[in-house]
Amino acid sequence: MKLTDINTPADLKQLQPGELQAVADELRSYIVNTLSTHPGHLASSLGTVELTVALHYVFNTPDDKLIWDVGHQAYAHKILTGRREAFSTVRTYGGISGFPKMSESPYDAFGTGHSSTSISAALGMAVASRMQGNTSRKHIAVIGDGSLTGGEAFEALNNVGLSKANILVILNDNGISIDKAVGGLNNYLMRITSSPRYNRLKEQVWQRLDSGEGLRQRSKGVFQRMTKVAKTIALGSTNLFEALGIRYFGPVDGHDIVHLTEILSRLKDMNGPVLLHVVTRKGRGLKQAEQNPIVYHAPGLFDAETGERTLITHHSSLTHPLKYQEVFGRTIIELAEKNPAIVGITPAMATGCSLNLMMEQMPDRVFDVGISEQHAVTFAAGLAAQGMVPFCNIYSSFAQRAYDQIIHDVALQQLPVVLCLDRAGLVGDDGPTHHGVFDLAALRPIPNLTICAPMDDHELRNMMYTAQLPNHGPVVIRYPRGSSVYSDWQSPMQELTIGEGRCVREGSDVAFLSLGHPGNDTVAAAEELQKQGLSAAVYDMRFLKPLDTRLLDEVASKGFRRIITIEDGTKLGGFGEAVESYFTEHHPEQAAHITVLAIPDEFVTHGSVPQLKADCHIDKDSLIRSALL
Q1: Quick check: is 373 catalytic?
Q2: Annotated catalytic, 282?
Q3: Is residue 535 very low, low, confident or very high in pLDDT (cuts 50, 70, 90)?
Q4: Residue 487: which of 292, 332, 349, 326 has the closest Cα?
Q5: pTM for this model (two decimals)
Q6: List 152, 262, 373, 567, catalytic entry
Q7: Does 228 score more than 70 pLDDT?
Q8: Into how many domains does the chain fold?
Q9: Are 152 and 30 members of one domain?
């Protein structure tokens, strides 16, 4: 059977287990060939091809509920569940999502995009099925060892053991999330997978059982006792998962598809919570992806035959602007060389936020805490309480998971944590799970916070320099994904006055008030309007909190016929609303002339950033249209 003959998982069930590897091989080639010209998350999905085929072969999806944690590894799942022909549209505007999405397919049992949620969701579904009298439905959560470091995953495992619900957790252990996995849990899993004694005993247990018919009821008790004894003898202590009340099996080879189907068939009818530890290789089947899974997590364009990446542009500090993340990564090194109190913190995104640069030069001053945003923020607070200056770098959308810690552990105690929110605003192809559009509105009401956004790389450096100086409380610096503005990014750093904006361009007819990188579109719009005979002023406000009310008073005094605010955050509760509120209270005669351009009250789809900005009416053309009204 060819891959083109498989339209639903039911088609797989016509095959014998020995025929499944051919399907897996074709599926892996299809992923490589498609993503070479239509970029997406490559290495993660290559590592789970055999596991995906085996799961859909053994279980009765979509009635059985299969939940993929994060979803980076779910491309094979999408292809096998009716989306093969649409796969080339993945992560493109109007195409299929890069992550599982309930509205996209009945096979996507739960929408995922952030890590560590699968076990909680699967447990909720299992309990619901039990309460509804459905005792035959199976509930499977596939979670990586990186995602398992997230606090929610541990909370869920603790609850799973108490619930006695029928849930199968597949621990996909490849030793890496996006960057290399870290922490005690990773060491514990390595100890299990590398124990020769345990693995010999485990194989003896499997061989004693009838693999052809699965586990008979009479043999279940014997099997469970034998495996528990083997684990205790070999590992010298109680298995972590067993201690939580979850039966543990493994580790098993995640690329031996026949063995996987046998084991899954045995575990399928077990009652109560079960965890199967599967060992896979990220990037399996593509040499470059196996050797460098960090780069090939999402490599962009590459040659399907050789695996070599296609570099469209070469970023050089001499000829091209750096990405904002690179400016951050290089600037923090400069600051740390002069200020020994500075440390860097990242929740498993060292390469993504460019803290890997500091990690290479100052390994003792950078802390990768794993996928644990809540811990990252409170850990930073603890460091700050003892006189350190922590720069805690978290993607904006992921920082939502640490909202309570930002309030309770940082702002309430006025601790000088520098919270750097990378990927703020519209991020593009990753879509609604990753757009960083809620941070301004979420953080604005919190007392004691200073919230700022640079219009360019020079301002980012100045904000970082200012934030690490003495006598500042907690500071939030948010900046977007992608390129900054200047090729000469390494400007001399200077202290900014907290809460002070600036006039970038004088004008008399219309005033643009911007926050952050969108200010560059306002300058471009003002220049275009000048050609049409309209004089537009541009104000870079820099700070959402405290708001520069002196500058707002100046704007009000000039009698502009229209005042337009622009931001890449939500309209509700954001920068524009803050400006409107101030004008309503202090300059009511001018409040009616304000137009707020911001992200609308909806979840924005995936697509290119220029396309999404146009859809949200926060691009240069929208600014021009608003000014001409």
Answers
A1: yes
A2: yes
A3: very high
A4: 326
A5: 0.88
A6: 373
A7: no
A8: 3
A9: yes
